[in-house]
Amino acid sequence: MNAETGKEYKGSNFFMLNLDAWVKKHHSPKYATMIQWNKLGERIKSGEKASPIIKYNVVEKEDDEGKIKKSAWLKQYFVFNESQLVSFMPKERPEPRPEKSKQCSWPRSHSRHRPP
What we know:
This protein is α+β, with helices and mostly antiparallel strands. It contains two helices and three strands; from the N terminus they run αβαββ. The chain has helices at 11-24, 34-39; strands at 31-33, 51-62, 68-81. It has a three-stranded antiparallel sheet. β2 (51-62) and β3 form a beta hairpin. The relative contact order is 0.19. The model has no long low-confidence stretch (mean pLDDT 82).
């Protein structure tokens, strides 16, 4: 999700940013460009690397003859995850669940080995 606009990323950007978050172990789904984070009053940690995304758009233009022509364009942006910010504090993680007992849940009468 874009931190400034609140819009979800779609298509290959969604896939790539989720993969990026998993590989880099980010704790937040929010991404934004450096300019967007600066507008929000945030700063990126020194040495952090951005993740690339691609914006695709189709523009319709009318030519001299009155025909509408479509042209597509791609633009690459670089975004940072919220966990790459100086001010980021990860939320407290829930305590791990206790491990299940390794004892058999069957009644003892069905056990092969009976106590002496």
